[in-house]
Amino acid sequence: MRPVAGKNPSLLAPSILAGDHGDLRKSTQEVENLGLRWLHLDIMDGHFVPNLTFGPATVAALRKDSQLFFDVHLMLANPDAFIEPFAEAGADLISFHIEAPVDHRKVLQQIADRDCQKGLVINPGTAPESVYPYLSSIDLLLVMTVQPGFGGQSFKEEMIRKIRKIHQWRLDNNHLFRLEVDGGIDMETAKRCAEAGADTFVAGTAFFKSAEKEKFIDTVESLS
Ligand code: DX5
Ligand code: ZN
Q: Which of 72, 107, 121, 152 has the CB geometry, 3.0–4.6 Å to 142, for a possible disulfide?
């Protein structure tokens, strides 16, 4: 496939949500041993989304034994209260939702003040125009391709248009942020998202349950 102009090199970020919750260190090491560089960590509060995961103490424990880039996705109603703890725990990038009722500029500044990369996340039902004003101020834009809260859901095909639109804005304005997709990503859906402009692929179920992890990695890396 021909590279899409204006994109960053493609990378796969396995979501530890689909790892072994009795031994998250083992799942993290598995990702690292395969030569991958990113790990996606889903933080849920049981309020902004109808599920719970883990907090900063778990991230700090994984950080002790890992050199991976920690891509921390906050699904929280009050991300402003948790930037400091997750930065302290060793997050490299922190993303939070445009739907969270906070002062987004202030939270982006909080993340920058902690020398972390800054990410914004947009849910399937939210119009892409809502993130437009922030595109010059972020390192990553995460387009949810399922309703967040649970792994193992089906990819929402109608998100392709949103990815294409945001990628076009990125080209038009020479922005450099990564365009990440999350939810129902497997080898096939990753290809379709890449054609629309995505360059960063979160995969939980399809990665951890796969018997062909190397093939998955090669496929995603060839999407550059
Ligand atoms: C969904 C999470 C995802 C999840 C993706 O709320 O944000 O990161 O782990 O899981 P799969 O790849 O199984 O759809
Ligand atoms: Zn996620």
A: 121
